[in-house]
Specification:
16 strands, Quinone Oxidoreductase, Chain A, domain 1, alpha/beta
């Protein structure tokens, strides 16, 4: 079968289309014909060597498709079922073998492309707004990179909870996309903390959802009201440098958390509940998923280049 192999840590040029053996299914596993693959910044971090993945290795972790075969001990899933996953190594391929415990059912009314586009980022938006900082009616929150995959979904979820969204994005076109998704205000990154305070009558935001990291972190802290919550869930611009925790006290007894989807889907029951709610929102039309680009599997390098260029909006997919 075909697969995109990370030949060594580095830029998009280390991604190489290769013919590799078809994976063999083991006990507790399923083998899936991949129909759509989600392209995420976690794939960039993996390619750059940040995760310590032994290389060479097949890239990717998110996708959707149809089960071809089940291994011994699998009872919940059968051949022919449509499933999706957000954390199966080696997903940039025609086929993938994954633990059945990582696969979630895709309901009628949700295509494989939508499932692959929505699962990782949709569940991220779900846990951020419902649990990491639970948005209450009337809360004002900042959503960084609001025209990106998570940002567009998170904006919609916060609005569904009756919160006020102050979105940030790098270009006028992206800010228009954020407004179209339901954001109440859309700002450039420059000086956003001062504008957030103006919009809140000097009080500041209840929470900041920050997937950008280094470039926005300091100003995000300044945008918060006393006892506000800084939710640092990504590092698209680089990792945040170590800092003195007294900055949190000086900012008004602020809260800082660095959540991860894996800790919010650690139990099978939680993964099933969270994914089912996201898919139900999509099927009902209350959560719109924007697919910003579709690329053949062999164009994985170009997909990474365009993701990192910040020129894209919504979710990028590889389609075998």
């Amino acid at each position: 079968m075909r697969a995109i192999v990370i030949t060594g840590a580095g830029g998009p040029d280390v991604l190489e289309l290769q013919d590799v053996p078809e994976p063999e299914v083991g006990a507790g596993q399923v083998r899936v014909a991949v129909e759509a693959i989600g392209v995420n910044f976690r794939d960039v971090y993996e390619r750059e060597g940040r995760y310590g993945t032994p290389l060479p290795a097949v890239a990717g972790a998110e996708g959707a498709g149809t089960v071809l075969e089940t291994g011994p001990g699998v009872t919940e899933i059968a051949a022919g079922d449509r499933v999706a996953w957000s954390s199966a190594p080696g997903s940039y391929a025609d086929q993938v073998v994954l633990d059945a415990s990582l696969a979630v059912p895709v309901p009628d009314g949700v295509s494989s492309e939508l499932a692959a586009a929505a699962l990782l980022q949709g569940m991220t938006a779900h846990y951020l707004a419902l649990e990491t900082y639970p948005v209450r009616r009337g809360d004002t929150v900042v959503v960084h990179a609001a025209a990106g995959g998570v940002g567009l979904l998170l904006t919609q979820v916060v609005k569904g909870l009756a919160g006020t969204v102050v979105a940030t994005a790098s270009t006028a076109d992206k800010r228009e996309r954020a407004l179209a998704a339901g954001a109440d205000h859309a700002l450039p990154y420059e000086g956003f903390a001062d504008r957030v305070r103006e919009l809140t009558g000097g009080a500041g935001a209840h929470a900041v959802y920050d997937g950008v990291g280094q470039a926005t972190f300091d100003e995000s802290l300044r945008a918060l009201r006393p006892r506000g919550t800084m939710v640092l869930y990504g590092a698209a611009s680089g990792r945040v440098e170590p800092f003195d925790p007294m900055r949190l006290e000086h900012g008004g007894s602020l809260f800082l958390t660095r959540p991860s989807l894996r800790h919010y889907t650690a139990a099978r029951e939680e993964l099933l509940r969270r994914s089912a709610e996201v898919f139900a929102w999509i099927a009902a039309g209350t959560l719109h998923v924007e697919i910003g680009g579709r690329y053949p599997l062999e164009d994985a390098r170009r997909a990474h280049e365009e993701l990192e260029s910040r020129a894209t909006s919504g979710k990028l997919l590889l389609v075998p």
